[in-house]
Amino acid sequence: MSSTWDDFSYDDDDELLDSGVDSDFVAADENDDSAVKAAAGAALEAPEVDYDGPVIDVPQGKFVMLCMFR
Fold first, then answer.
1. Separation CA 4–CA 26 (nearest Å)
2. In this structure, what DSSP letter does residue 34 have?
3. Please, what is the Cα angle at 58 between 70 and 30, to 5 degrees?
4. Contact indicator for 55, 64 with CB cutoff of 8 Å
5. Which of 21, 53, 57, 65 qualifies as a FRET site for 9, CA 20 to 30 Å off?
6. Which range marks the domain in which residue 35 is found?
7. Each residue of 27-68: pLDDT tens digit?
8. Residue 41: closest CA among 53, 29, 52
């Protein structure tokens, strides 16, 4: 199976922010202070999670192995 990029088009991030987010929302920039980034993230509504499994707890400094089954 192969895929092509024939229908690939430019995705304007500003358009996405303007269309579905409160007009008072100001997105954080990568150069902003951590507190500014946290405030920007807290201003957004949390997404709904559709996962009924156990909580995945990964201790700091560890990683989760990703297994792909075919």
1. 35
2. H
3. 95
4. no
5. 21
6. 13-42
7. 778 888 899 888 888 888 888 888 888 888 899 999 888 877
8. 29
Tokens read off for 25:
């929302």
The total domain count for the chain is 1
DSSP for 32-49, please give it. S-HHHHHHHHHTSPPPP-
Q: Could you tell me which of 44, 5, 7, 10 has the C-alpha nearest to residue 24?
A: 44
Which residues fall within 8 angstroms of residue 27, CB to CB, at 6 or more apart? 17, 40
Please identify which residue in the block is written with the tokens 């405030």: 39
Q: Is residue 50 part of a domain?
A: no
Sign of the torsion formed by the C-alpha atoms of 54, 55, 61 and 64 = positive
Position 22 in a domain = yes
Look at residue 17 and tell me if it is in a domain: yes
